[in-house]
Hints:
Radius of gyration: 29 Å
Order of helices and strands: EHEHEHEHEHHEHEHEHEEHEHHEHHHH
Number of domains: 4
CATH topology of the largest domain: Rossmann fold
Amino acid sequence: MAKLSPVLIIEDDSKVASQVAEVLRDRAEILSYGKIEEFVKASSERPKCLAIIDYDLKENDGLFVLRRLKQQNPYARTIMLSSSNNIPLAVTAAKLGALEFLRKPLIAADLVQAVERLSREEDVRGFSFDAVAGTEWLQGNSTALLGFEDELMKASGSIRDLTVLAERGIDKRAVAELVHRNGPNGGKKMVEIDLDSFKKESLEGHFWATLNELLSGGKPAGIGRVEEEPATVYIEGFETVSEHFRLSIFDFMKNKDRKNGINREIKVVLGVCEASLLPKLDNFDLLTVPPLRERKADLPAIVAELLRDRTEALSVSAETLEMLSYYDFPGNYEELENLLRSSVPENGVLSRLSLGQSAFLSYVRSLTRMYPLNRLRETFEKKLLKRLIGISGGNLHAVARFLNLPKTVLDDRMRDLDL
């Protein structure tokens, strides 16, 4: 194994500190600290470090240290030690970012195995979206997007299997490819399996033969040309196959690490649309893609990116962006892209959207949820009167005749509407 630089440990038990240093002496540079602030400061200066934290510290418990560490260096790979086999503690540590939980007294082989595993997780600060098609929707700086990008980077840096949960209309394959390309084995191949191609019962045997060959590091001809051994296997289409077939796949995934002939260096990424499937995949890490309705603040940036190659659409009207911000997009990013593609700009400005009936009704319902009906009516009246006044050249008598109203009634209504 290539020597790590460095491994930081916070430990106030000299015997444990000496044991860690002895076990890892030939594998890494070891920097040992007894004070929390010294340890955290050293970590912040070494973004690529691997940190070992003892929970049983006298100054404060290890969870406090882990929180401080992650605040200063969120990309530090962390191992927590504890003298107790406390499952709630291990769960809490994992939620805070600890990737391994080892019990004291330490077993040297377990420590070495944990360090070697984490050493293969590359630094993801240089995360790149380059050359991955279908990622135009990853534009903006909303809280939802920034949180997702942080989770995306963590998933890419990990060698653990992953479930990508996303609603329909979100390109899960593109997310899987981002995870693969920015991962430890991004220079190798990602192989895709769409279960829709195997939904006939007669083809299930071919699927299992293909999957087993891929996970053993083989190069099956049935998937397409694979020049190198696969590093990532992406599987989608679980919603298209029978429940029995789906459950058999989940059962296989849950127990695959115990099976003979499986290459544990190959990462499996599953793309699912239904959260109800997640309990069957509790041994996988989870990456949830936020739907478009949770990212309305990013709409201008996403629209600009989607229109980048459309030279006939030079800009988008404020009214169009306002309408998009009210609509809840049940079809997510794919629906937005199709909507923009089908709309025809006038003089370079995209000002009219080809909303279908269901989309228009959804838009109207969104407005009525946001504003009282009376306010909507006033807004409509105001726009109508402005339009009629403009067409008539300011002739209010002509407007009153068109609306079949007495001129005095029209004057009173215009005063009520501040016109």
